Amino acid sequence: MKALRQIATLIRKDIGLQFRSKETLALIFVFSILVVLIFAFAFGPNFPLEKSERGKLTASVLWAAFVFAGIITLNRSFVIERTHGALHGIRLTGVDASNVYLSKVISNLVFLLLLEIVITPIALQFFDLFDDITVVVLLKLVGVMSIGTLGFCAVGVLLAGMSTSTDGGESLLSVILLPLVIPIIMGGTKCTVSILVTGGLENRFWLGLLIGSSLVFLASAYLLADAVIEE
Amino acid sequence: MRLSASQISKHFGHRAIVKNANLTINSGEVVVIFGPNGAGKTTFIKILATLLRPTSGELDIEGIDGITDYAKVRHKLGVIIHDHLAYPTLSAFENLKFFGQMSGIEYLETRCESLLNEVGLQRFVHEPLHIFSRGMTQRFMIARALLHNPSILLLDEPFSGLDAAAKQFVQKRIAQERENGKGILITTHNTELGHLVGTRFLFMINGDLEEIAEKEEISEEDLLQRYEERIIDTA
To answer: Alpha-carbon distance B45 to B51, whole Å?
Structure first.
């Protein structure tokens, strides 16, 4: 109960701080919309006639936007903790480092899902796919993106915790995080393409890779959280 | 005995910042460590606060190993270091409330309000910390350190950057907490204030911690003279 209360307090604080300054939210929304617009201008105004091509384009644009917006979110969420030693303040309350880790994963997941919920329909509209999407397809998309974002945040929070304690941590995070999340990006992109083109998941291998790598990242990062947050 | 540190060393690379330091803090005692900038005082206090792992040595906090069981001893510690240990965009009240919730303090809102009143911040309860002056921040830090009623206070340079009124306030508060039976450690390079609030004095120079005297054994002038001589000797 105590752990749950602490995690809930930490999540509430993270979300409250982000919505109060709106700095990170504004940054990631503007960045993601720009990515969609740049691709839309580059490939438009006449998009490929084949739905499969449009599906591939939309999936790649969405995942590129989410991955880089995710890096911004992860960095910001730890910079807030490190700047005035607030993380030391949290540690001094005696909270388990793994609870701090879980709360960071959940609050970053919430931000990125919020971003995905807003950006995905915009991208679908820009790339002429919006009319083909049913509620069922949309739910499948949300499912795949949620799993992918969870895996991304699971490993990203751990690495952001490490990188923000060093000089030049912001650029360091991109360098160390991107190679690690390749299985998630591959699985997520392939599943998204499949859902956008066929309305379902034709090749279960990519879904397996997405779920498997997300769970492995979450479990291993949870076990390593103490070493990262306490050192 | 509240806290006992034995043979504590801390190395950053090949550089020894703290060298085999031994220290005990008893109930109702104010231990003052004097030392110039860069002597290793902040590193040592961070080790005692379990925020930094020593390279070697042992730390016992009220019978619990502070190095391996750090999570179990942290609620016994009230800490002031150079960082705010708080969120500058949250108000003084919101910060205290958040850290109080994390510590599981009962009657939290009343506790936060009364503490902020006690430290003289009643007019700034709902103002964000980033607008606070150095003195106001220090007052907030004292409230934050006392929030969970710890038995040991570790105060790194509690007088630095304060005006006369704020210094007097901190001094009175330290005396009050000492009377309440807390074990208190202060680091400072101000021998006048250190002698005034302390009951036992040590020097830390170039990472070496040296026991000097109990308060009744040494006058403020002698303390200052010995301190200056030690600094010149090691320069």
So the answer is: 9
CB-based contact (8 Å) between A125 and chain B? no
The distance of B199 to chain A (nearest Cα, Å) reads: 26
A85 interfacial to chain B (CB closer than 8 Å)? yes
How many angstroms away from the CA of A9 is the closest CA of chain B? 7
Do A84 and B88 make contact, defined as CB atoms within 8 angstroms? yes
pLDDT in tens, A188-220: 999 999 999 888 887 889 999 999 999 999 999
pTM above 0.80, yes or no: yes
Our count of domains for chain B comes to 1
All residues of chain B having their beta carbon less than 8 Å from the beta carbon of residue A85 are 81-85
DSSP 3-state of B58? strand
Domain of residue B87, residue span? 2-234
Query: Which residues, 6+ apart, have CB-to-CB distance to B109 below 8 Å?
Result: B97
Which domain CATH number covers B181? Answer: 3.40.50.300
Q: A158: distance to nearest CA of chain B, Å? A: 19
ipTM score of complex: 0.90
